[in-house]
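Chain A, query sequence.
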Amino acid sequence: MPEFNFTKSSYSTPSNECLEVARNIPGTIAIRDSKSPTGPILHLTPTTWTKFTATLNTP
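Chain A, predicted structure.
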């Protein structure tokens, strides 16, 4: 299993209500809940991640 280097979003709240994202493994974007760092990890392709984040910026 690859070692992901997760980064917490700058939008994280003081109570850690945020996602952490790792983009250091080619071909995989890994996402986890910052409150549960040993919990499940969602793996996305870079294309899927780009489409997902684009929908967040759509009015």
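The helical segments are 46-56. Strands lie at 7-8, 19-22, 29-33, 42-44.
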